[in-house]
Amino acid sequence: MTEKDRPWVMRTYAGHSTAEASNALYRSNLAKGQTGLSVAFDLPTQTGYDPDSVMARGEVGKVGVPVPHLGEMRKLFDSIPLTEMNTSMTINATAMWLLAMYQVVAEEQAGVPEGRATPEEVAALLAGTTQNDIIKEYLSRGTYVFPPEHSLRLIADMIAYTVHQIPKWNPINICSYHLQEAGATPTQELAYALCTAIAVLDQVKASGQVSEDDFEKVVGRISFFVNAGVRFVEEMCKMRAFVELWDEITRERYGVQDPKMRRFRYGVQVNSLGLTEAQPENNVQRIVLEMLGVTLSKDARARAIQLPAWNEALGLPRPWDQQWSLRLQQVLAFESDLLEYDDIFTGSTVVEAKVAELVAGAKAEIDRVQAMGGAIAAVESGYMKQELVSAHAARRARIEAGDEIIVGVNKFETTEPSPLTADLDGAIMTADPQAEASAVASVEAWKAERDEDEVARALADLAEAAKTDANLMLPTLAAARAGATTGEWAGTLREVFGEFRAPTGVSGAVVAASAGQAGAELSAVRERVRATGEELSGNTGGRLRLLVGKPGLDGHSNGAEQVAVRARDAGFEVIYQGIRLTPEQIVSAAVAEDVHCVGLSILSGSHMELVPAVLDGLREAGMSDVPVIVGGIIPDSDGRRLVEAGVAAVYTPKDFGLTEIMGGIVDVIRRANGLD
Q1: Is 13 designated active site?
Q2: Percent helix, strand, coil in the chain (nearest 5)?
Q3: Which of 177, 192, 266, 576 is flagged as catalytic?
Q4: Distance of CA 61 to CAs 239, 424, 427, 628, Å?
């Protein structure tokens, strides 16, 4: 037995409604023994819009906290000393802006304006992480704003700034987590995350902002954020493979000599993709098993862990639910003997063989991507997105066929009534319905009090700097201090850099459900689709047209992509234009394509605002006879209200059978057209 290892940093991913409410939640969690903060920002903040933007409609305060200006950042961390805190911020496209506001608030707390400390002294004390991995946003999470070239420039600028000014800060968290949520296999998760890291480090080198002597420090500040699924033995081996591959890449590609700088440092949130709405109490044991995958092996143990709550497939977790997840970590770290031993898998031939298999597969895929020109080229060509969509489709097909068992979903479905979900509306937390109005009022009041000329000068300086190769962190800090808003900072850079729409990966995805019983069921639905299309068109070859729409800022497109792929395979003509559309754009597409059904996918909780807007738009366009169906994380009470408002069908995570959903869409179309 060796000296007991230190526990990992324990976080809870949190933030909702308002800065004041989130601050109260953070302080409560810290009082319960949480050892770090993990901030969830709302979608307008993540995508660079102010709360009063038309794009922010229905999204303010839903999946995180709105931070449109420095005043709200002050409220968010009120009475939380930032120079003593380890803060992780899940922020990407606007990461530079949020770090700037965080730094300014830390300076204010430490008394820099009063001369009690210098900015350099404060910066040297700040510890934490900005996620800042834009490549995975193009592939899975969808909160990108700028084209890849300009996004990488912002990342490189942040890395160069922090390595010199905020040396304890992790400026980027390479995220394989969201790749697994998008369907990545362990091999793909390894390969695509490491290709992202290579792209980032190559960009920093090429920028010329970091000397050769300091480049090892850059490598040493690169951290990762990984996923861990319920196949915890394989996941543990995946982590050991990450350690081996990262050591090799940093040593051989970048010549890093110091073993400490080559260390694979990672945090984790265990799998959310596998959390189920059906029998959600089973999610507790899933979360525990997934946590073991990143803690059992000392040589590949996570440095920080945040666990989802048991009820995240139902809606927003309550503080008690988050406490339960925190207690899971604390029991493992403080009651068990896990931390008393060296790595318990050293010498295991089974583990070594599995790690070698994963390493070999990942190297082959890394080589394939690098031969295309690297991660950015593989994003722009659609290759990586297509591979993820195909892998996810294959997983869905295995579940539907019963080849991959999900307890309580496709096996062992009989259950006693659960006291945890007896009151479904009470089993989750509801975001403050006044959050949007409060945030809009906050921005109005903020703008009324600031010096508009100073803001205009700061934003003009930012725009000019963006047109050069200057590091944008300093003009961003100046804009934050002047009082610019999140939307103004991002809007200024949008005008210089432009915007980007990533490939959807749908058209090239492979057919997954084509064999056995699943194939027979799909064939039967395909025949109904064909027959109904011909009935409605009055001629042979007429096809049913389905519009799959993602209204609002919700970028989690995995579900929509899988619906689009299965609808294509079922014989529908599918119109899918990707993420981040306004209700008006969706209605325009429905009119232009003369569709038979509109399917909306919303996972951000904004369904009660955005779905009625689409319904109203269709009525105004004379298409009230076109049925609308909705899918997402939608509480039962909201589902009933949507049906009362005119929605033809509501699907939630418990409706895992995509082919069955396709049959339901045919039923909806037939009823709407009087065919049944």
Answers
A1: yes
A2: 55, 10, 35
A3: 177
A4: 34, 21, 19, 26
